[in-house]
Amino acid sequence: MLAPIVGKTSPKKTQAHGHNAHARPPQARLDEAVGLAVAIQLDVRASGVVPVPQPKPATLFGRGKVEELAGVVRAEGAELVVVDHPLTPVQQRNLETAWNAKVIDRTGLILEIFGERARTREGRLQVELAHLEYQKSRLVRSWTHLERQRGGFGFLGGPGETQIETDRRLLSERIDVIRKELDHVRRTRALHRKSRQRVPYPAVALVGYTNAGKSTLFNALTGADVVAEDILFATLDPTIRALRLPGGSKAVLSDTVGFISDLPTTLVAAFRATLEEVLEADLILHVRDIADEVSLSQRADVIAILAELGIDVDAEPERLLEVWNKADLLDDTSRERAANEAPRYGAVLVSAETGRGLDALRAEIERRLNSRRQTVELTLGPQEGALSNWIYENCEVVARSDLGEGMMSLRVRVPPEKRDKLARLAGAARLHAAE
To answer: What is the side-by-side strand order in the sheet with 396-404?
Structure first.
């Protein structure tokens, strides 16, 4: 078992890589970094915030601080040091030499966690692609000193570190192979999505900061048994289940990978195939841990990643519904304040753990979905079997009444993209808006 020490740079430096408006306090960043290490069963022997008023190109930290930390590493017998900040290959190499220990930065740690968590072939391909892209940027001759390092598990001590002779051409070839395989996965997923669209249920996707309680909420809403643990990145591979809504309608709900601040760009790109479920969703539920003191900062990170994926929540405010989760962790005063504030922000306060607020959430999901789907009534004759089939395949039939002699009356909820075609097939004059 590796024993890491987690280093943390000053707020001044980290803000250059985050969102200044809701920047986390240093201790919150440190707690998250320790949580990331614990998520893969690393034994954290020491951790601390290290001020870096002037980052050094060679080592990030000043000489005195490097020597001080070397003493801590020796005293704790640490085999791994995690620096919660991007490190250049040169900085990583120099710190490993100075501390005689393996050194990884935030990106390396997140890659390691993803490598541990990915279960499906698609997930593993995406993690491998992100890792190879990361290693490709670090192929430098001076890495030969790493051959003496003790091996870790997963990507720690991986092929990029123990086989320095692996050149860029071989890495690039493997990257090309994985990209082709992921393109195939993406096409397959698109076909599955197309087949789901033939069953005319709207799609709802859960997003949120890692450990916000998405999987617990997913299970509570659908009755599924997705792994829901109090650790970062418990869910990597997407899961899709049917969601029944109070008015009798249905939707398709998907659980997705959690977001995190400073999520490596390589990972955002690699997981684009998975996150396409979010891109295609009719409604996005942004699950927030409202009991976390840095919830606003986490919100900013999630919105930024959604923007990176091409989703502008300001342009489509009705498409994003905030779910303020973990109400059970608030004291009475805070819970009452949150309950009063939630409606003003168009949010719903819930506890996925206790079930509080879930009925209100289901009702709001249905309201949001139905606001985009027009409900009409029309009468069909016995000779209109083809039209009837098309309606059942492409729209949601809410109610049906047999009128005798083969005639029937349908109440139909029509997706926005199907309205024009239904009007053409049935005749616009026959469609009457339902009360």
So the answer is: 396-404, 407-414, 374-380, 432-433
For residue 30, the SS3 value is: helix
| pTM given for the model | 0.72
pLDDT of residue 150: 34
Structure tokens at 206: 């859960």
32 by Cβ neighbours in 10 Å (0-12 / 13-18 / 19+) ranks as buried
Q: Which tokens sit at 251? A: 């939707």
Mean pLDDT to the nearest integer, 71-76: 91
Strand order in the sheet with 102-105: 46-49, 4-8, 80-83, 102-105
Packed helices 168-198 and 121-136: angle between N→C axes, nearest 10 degrees: 150
Contacts of 64 (CB under 8 A, 6+ apart): none
- Whole-angstrom Cα distance, residue 345 to residue 316? 15
Between CA 255 and CA 359, with CA 353 as vertex, the angle to 5 degrees is 80
Q: What is the pLDDT of residues 412-430, one digit of tens each?
A: 988 887 889 999 999 988 9
**Is residue 170 assigned to a domain?**
no
Q: Are residues 209 and 356 in the same domain?
A: yes
Tens of pLDDT, residues 157-168: 444 444 555 567
Question: Does residue 84 form part of some domain?
Answer: yes
Domain of 414?
A: 374-433
Cβ atoms of 102 and 81 closer than 8 Å: yes
